[in-house]
Structures are given as C-alpha cells and as structure tokens.
Request: fold
Amino acid sequence: MLYYAAVFFVIAVIAGVLGFGGIAGASAGIAQILFFVFLVFLVLSLIAGVLRRG
Reply:
C-alpha cells in the first residue's frame, strides 16, 4: 500500500510540474489517504504482534 501512495505522489509531482493542477491535487489527496491507511495497518500489525508474543 505504501508503494501505491508513492506512485500517486510521483504522479502528483509530475502533474504539478506540468501545470495540471486538478490532477495533481487529486493524486496528492489519494496518496495522502493511502499513506494514512498504511499507517493504520502498520500500527494494528504491531499491536497484534505484541499481543501474540505477550
């Protein structure tokens, strides 16, 4: 999932450089959402690992 967030971030940067503001904004928004979903899954995974070991 972090890979997809990075891909959308790169698309947003390229679109921003080329002047496509709408596409850049949408891609940046998608990248941000995917990044936060990744963080939530990471925290849940770490908590599950600690509970399993405990």
In short: Residues 46 and 52 are 10 Å apart (CA to CA). The chain is about 95% helix and 0% strand. The mean pLDDT is 90. The first helix runs from residue 2 to 18.
